[in-house]
Every structure is written in C-alpha cells, then in structure tokens.
Design a protein that fits this description.
- This protein has about 375 residues and is an alpha+beta fold.
- Helix content is about 35%, strand content about 30%.
- Strands 1, 2, 3, 4, 5, 6, 7, 8, 9, 10, 11, 12 and 13 form a 13-stranded mixed beta sheet that branches.
- β3 and β4 form a beta hairpin.
- It starts with a strand and ends with a strand.
Length: about 375
C-alpha cells in the first residue's frame, strides 16, 4: 500500500500528530516542541487550564507558539490567533482535548496540549509541551508535563506520544533540546519520519508532464475524480475503507496505534470541522472504472492566513491496486489543482517514515527535498 501521512487534518489542530495512523486519529497542524531540559525551582508560575473563551489565553498561546518556533528554527510558519481559536471551537465528538498554560504575571510562558480519541485507541494520548525561550531550564516544562500526564492517567490513558525535530548535519541548524527533555522524562523514539518541502516555483512542469503521461500508461483502467472538502456521496464508503488503512497499513515502527472503525459519520464530521475552520482541501481520488472501487486518494490542506505554504495530508493507495503508478498520478494531479487555485502559494510540506521508500521516491521525483528528521516519542505506563 502506498501511504503518506498528513501534517494537518480536520480534527484538533494544535499538534503535529504522527505517524500516519496517529494523524488519522486526530488531524492537526501545529508542531510539538519539547524544549525544557533541566529542572529548577520557579516562583510565581501558575499552571491553569486553558480557557478557550478567554482571548488573553488564545493570544498568549499564539504568541508563545510563534516565539518557540522562531527560537527553535523550526520550518513552521506563523499561524494567526483566529486559527488557534477555531481549532478549539470547531472540533468533532470523536476527540477530546486537555490543555494547560503556565502563567507568570499574566503572561503565558508555557503550554501543554493533549488530544484523546473518544471512540477508539482509548489507551493513547498525544502530547505537546512548549516553553518560552526566556523561561527555559526553570522546571516549567517538567511541571506542565507532570500535570498533563497525571490528568491523562486519570482519564485511563497509559500510552503517551509526542514528537521532536532533529536537523541534518548539512542542513539548517535547529534546536534539538526537545529530544533530551523527552528522554529525561522516559520517552523513547518509536519511529523516525522525514519532513520534506516542495518549492513549487522551482518545479519543472515538463518533467511532471512526462511523469504523469508515463503513469497513465499503467493506469488505463482507472479514472481521476477531484473535489473540495466534502466528498460526493458515491465515494464515501470507499474513502472510509482507505481511512481505516491509515491506522493499519502504514509504517508505525514501535508506535502503539490500533485499528479503528472509520464510519461515514466520522468522515462527514471531519469534513464539517475543516469547513468551519476555513481550511481549503483539494482532494484527488482514483477509482477503478469497472469495479467502481476507490483505489486511492490524496489531500492537501491550505489554512486561512497561510497563503505561501500548504500541507500534504494523507495519500494512500489500497494494496489491491498497487503497481499502476496511482500514487504518482494522485500527487501530481492534486499539486497542480492547488497551483490552479493558489498560484501565489509557493511551498508544500510533507512527512514520511524513513522506511517508506516508495512514497519518498514519488515525492522526490515531483520536487520534494528534505528539511529535517522528526522523532516520534512514546512513553508507556503499566496498564
């Protein structure tokens, strides 16, 4: 099966949730930073639940996120406060979020975020912890993590997953202190993924023409269908089958992700949440002409306020339809549709497990180049 995880999908959007199966669980656009390394005593810090109706909390966590990304030299853009607000109000019943802030003299200096699936994988929680660069090494990250993990245990969760970046020796320098912080607190790498970026202004469209023409020679029994955000009714059942595959037929390493029952209701709820947040989602779908089976799909997310970069969401080709260059067709078709509607948009980012050689080959052929590695970090407690 050809698979590619998203960076951002339609459910909670305050974390980068990896790997593919995890993203299918929660779908979210933000990056997880573990940044504090040493535990010291810190006075005048209050750990409080985030109140999404308090605009000072939303503005505070937005500015905190920007400060952390800039300091860590992360390849993530600035998202507006309205997006942080929308991700908390426009969600689905399939998810629950737990969020805390570290507040010093009315300033947000740290934050934690946990995302829980309510219908499946109820052993699991996704974690994010970040601390403002000027307040690090004072125990704030450890306090946030301790409070959040305790709450998750009270919710019956015993497996925690997070992520942290690592630069390449020949690439841009990045703050990698998150890895040391995570290891200190009992997290271990369960999977390594690579983030790649495609500069659409540098892509040779003639090369894509050749790749696409050659791929269609192997896929004459298939047809391409494209739509935005909400799937036509006759595609829904087949799309649900493929979404279930995002939990089982992808490289997971040692990450403890389990099967789900992905229903049409769940798909529609995810679509509604994306529409309410103002996310534009071009979809490309491949269907077998004779059987009408949905053989694969690919999705890209364009977030409001982010007009120069988009994010690759899931790409998957069912194992019974492999060998027909369908992944290449899907990726090029969706990339070109994005260029048609957003000609000023320059970049698309994507993530793949290091072991996913087939999808990596497709991505590099159409212009993607590596930025950094991302460690999926897992901590398991006694059940």
């Amino acid at each position: 099966m050809t698979v590619e995880h998203n960076a951002f999908q339609a459910e909670p959007q305050n974390l980068r949730l990896r790997p593919i199966g995890i993203q299918a669980l929660y779908k979210n656009p933000s990056h997880f930073f573990l940044s504090c390394r040493k535990i010291c005593h810190m006075h005048n810090i209050d750990i409080v639940p985030l109140d999404p109706t308090d605009i000072s909390h939303i503005r505070g966590v937005t500015e905190l996120t920007h400060s952390v990304r800039e300091h860590n030299l992360s390849p993530w853009p600035r998202f507006p406060a309205v997006m942080e607000l929308a991700t908390r109000f426009f969600t689905t019943r399939y998810n629950k979020k737990i969020e805390y802030l570290a507040v010093s003299e009315q300033s947000v200096v740290g934050a934690s975020h946990a995302a829980l699936s309510t219908d499946d994988n109820q052993h699991l929680a996704m974690l994010e912890v970040m601390v403002h660069p000027e307040y690090r090494r004072q125990g704030i990250g450890s306090q946030l993590l301790q409070v959040t993990e305790k709450r998750l245990q009270d919710e019956g969760r015993h497996t925690f997953i997070a992520s942290s970046i690592e630069g390449y020796p020949d690439g841009e320098a990045m703050d990698e202190s998150g890895l040391a912080f995570a290891h200190h607190h009992g997290y271990h790498t369960s999977l390594i993924e690579v983030q790649r970026r495609n500069d659409l202004f540098a892509v040779d469209e003639r090369e894509l023409d050749d790749l696409l023409a050659d791929a269609w020679k192997h896929a004459q029994d298939y047809e391409l269908i494209q739509y935005y955000n909400s799937a036509p009714e006759d595609l829904v059942e087949g799309l649900c089958v493929l979404h279930e595959g995002m939990y089982t037929d992808v490289p997971l390493g040692d990450t403890d992700i389990r099967e789900v029952d992905f229903t049409p209701e769940r798909l529609r709820a995810r679509e509604r949440a994306s529409l309410e947040r103002g996310v534009v989602q071009p979809h490309s779908v491949i269907r077998h002409k004779a059987s009408k089976e949905i053989a694969g799909f690919s999705v890209i997310n364009v977030f409001p306020g982010s007009e120069d970069i988009a994010y690759q969401d899931d790409t998957i080709v069912h194992k019974t339809h492999r060998g027909h260059r369908l992944g290449t067709i899907l990726k090029i078709a969706n990339q070109r549709e994005l260029r048609r509607i957003r000609p000023q948009l320059r970049y698309i980012d994507t993530w793949n497990a290091e072991s996913n050689e087939h999808m990596i080959a497709i991505n590099e052929a159409i212009g993607y180049r590596k930025l950094c590695r991302e460690h999926e970090l897992q901590k398991k407690l006694s059940e």
